[in-house]
Amino acid sequence: MTTQHIPDGYREDRNGRLVPEEQIKPIDLARDHLVDEKIQGALELRDLLRAFKRGVFDDIAALVQLSGEQYGARIGGDKGNVTLMTFNGRYKIVRAIQDSIQFDERLQAAKALIDECLSDWTQGSRAELCTLVNNAFRADQDGSIKTAEVLSLRRLQFDDPRWKQAMTAISDAVTVVGSKTYVRFYQRDERGQYQPISLDVAGV
After folding, report:
1. Is the pLDDT of residue 188 over 70?
2. What gap in Å lies between CA 4 and CA 16, rounded to an integer?
3. Cα separation of 103 and 177, whole Å?
4. Backbone angles phi, psi at 138, to 5 degrees
5. What percent of the residues of the chain are helix, what percent strand, and what percent coil, each to the nearest 5?
6. Collapsing DSSP states into helix, strand and coil, what is residue 39?
7. Contact in structure between 175 and 151 (CB atoms under 8 Å)
8. Residue 23 DSSP label
9. Fewest Cβ atoms nearer than 10 Å: which of 40, 52, 68, 146?
10. How far is Cα 167 from Cα 154, in angstroms, rounded to an integer?
11. pLDDT at residue number 135
12. Which helix (H) or strand (E) holds 61?
């Protein structure tokens, strides 16, 4: 997209037309100045935050590597969850890796085995378990299975070999399709609880 040269004394409107400033209402000029000034400031802060974030990740990776070298170990410093604290414990930084996961076709095998279990078990007093399982496998509005609820089924322990096989199938069906690395900053308050230091404009 090319930007046309704007002569002195003119402003470009939203349709790309040049309008003499003398024909623009003062309140419109004031609004234009305010928005442009604040947006430029926001863009500068965004660039500063990007540079700060890169520096934080690089420095954490370097510290993790330095710590590993104390024991003769070489560590991939940019991977894994890490919590760092100041000596007095007042501040801490948390670097966390969040994986995005999906299930492959083996999830259907797990569901079939679970259905077999439920078909037998619900003859007794386990109707609430049937509801729990059905909710876990219910797709959301996007048509995606709620991964956290399906994975939570693995915490349930039953002796039925079909259930155990189903839990194995769920674990095998997990596929990591991507991951994001986050860094969060905390300050301990007067009660000893760590409160997040917000870098989000809406949360300040």
Report:
1. yes
2. 9
3. 10
4. -75, 130
5. 50, 20, 30
6. helix
7. no
8. G
9. 40
10. 6
11. 82
12. helix 26-69
Beta strand 174-188 with 194-196 is antiparallel
Give per-residue pLDDT as tens, 134-155.
788 887 776 778 788 888 888 8
Using an 8 Å Cβ cutoff, are 91 and 186 in contact?
A: yes
Q: How far is it, in rounded angstroms, from Cα 99 to Cα 82?
A: 15
List the structure tokens of 117: 């279990």
- Alpha-carbon span 157 to 86, nearest angstrom: 41
Which pLDDT value is given to residue 156? 85
Q: Which residue type is seen at 69?
A: E
β-bridge pairing 174-188 and 82-85: unpaired
The rounded distance, in Å, linking the Cα atoms of 11 and 24 is 9
State both tokens at 40.
């430029």
Mean pLDDT across 177-184:
86
* Torsions phi, psi for 99 (to 5 deg): -85, 140
User: Which helix (H) or strand (E) is 52 found in, with range?
Assistant: helix 26-69
- Is pLDDT above 60 for 5? yes
Amino acid found at 118: L
Mean per-residue pLDDT, 95-118? 87
